[in-house]
Amino acid sequence: MAERITLSYTDSRPALAPGELEARLKAAAPILEEVKAGEERYAGSLGWLSVDECAGEERLDFLLAEAARVRGMADAFVVIGIGGSNQASRAAVKALRPKDGPAILWAGNTISAAETRRLLGELDGYRSIVIDCIAKNFETLEPGIAFRVLRAYLEERYGVEEAARRIYATGTPGSSLDALCRENGYTFLTFPERVGGRYSVGTDVGLFPMAVAGVDVRALVQGMRDMRGRLFSEPAQDNLALRYACLRNLFYEHGYALEMLAFFEPRLSYFSRWWVQAFAESEGKEGKALYPVAACNSEDLHATGQFIQQGSPILFETFLTVADPGASVALPADRKGDGFDYLTGRDFREINDIACRATMQAHAERGIPCLELRVPKLDAHTMGELFYFFLFACYLSCRVLGVNPFDQPGVENYKGYMFKNLGKPGANA
Ligand code: PA5
Known about the structure:
The protein contains 16 helices and ten strands. The chain is an alpha/beta fold. 5-phosphoarabinonic acid (PA5) binds at residues 82-85, 135-137, 140, 143, 196-198, 281, 408.
């Protein structure tokens, strides 16, 4: 049997009383059952839960055929989107680093003029460009204006008709984006009605850009299915996601205000941003929730590491570790007396692992609860498992906390002022 993702924790100066986790798991068991059964009140947001509703074999065949078309014609593919619309594909592409596809560029996630000008300059260096604008309801400002700029760029460069062949958009059927595509002959992909942005990894939103980049999306979706199978069959006391959800809520209740996702593989940096978004936007409401932050180690040990060891005791950590990093670099011998001979012949992977264990030990001794989510390796299948695990755990965690996992009313407040000040028709702060 393939190695499985595991979750363990060290609570050296115990924050939790003996039996506290077990009692919480027992109390939360009905939540797990309700979530598995499909909660009526969230029916409009649960299209991702089954995996196959949005990523069945037929849909994957279609997406892979479209991706093959793009891969056959483009040396650059621009993903336009923000928040849940771009985080998952960027996380997977950056973690898995597929090699043989077009360059993947990211747009529509900033309003910076300098960044937008830089992107346009970068595009001049490519021969053949295809774009995909992803927006659930096409009112979000960043992708909306980036899409307009990039449409103009393509039309100027290729002419209106050829530009249309190079434009994809992913939105809700019946939305204004759908209408724009129909009127102009752009290819329209589906942003499923019953899936919110941050839960959209296993839909056209996440899977199409990944497939264009060359990520093995069949393996990734299989990873999601396998994790679903596991989480739907494990009993509450042993359920990987419920344990994680209960632990983080218990630490929150014991006064920890932040959860830090710490990792020692820098290619997980964008995955950590996906994780931050999923938890912050799902949980942070009603004056509650852990603030999710990330640390890319060992680099961040030379920065926030000081705070963690001796600053205010406000956080606990979840270490996302990788058993087989998939690469080896041995330290060569050298007679120059640089002071590192004690490491001659040792592998970076071993040194990295020892640094990670030392960090956990030092932080745990300080009284920081340290969870470890350990994955056997980083491939498409494992990434799929991780995506599904965290989404499912996020849903459970919101339920344990007592907040709606699927709305984000708070993000509307700044938009009210911004749209009013920009003169958007009908906008009131
Ligand atoms: O998770 C979410 O719902 C948000 O982060 C959205 O994905 C984000 O605001 C972008 O929304 P839209 O796709 O409508 O442009």
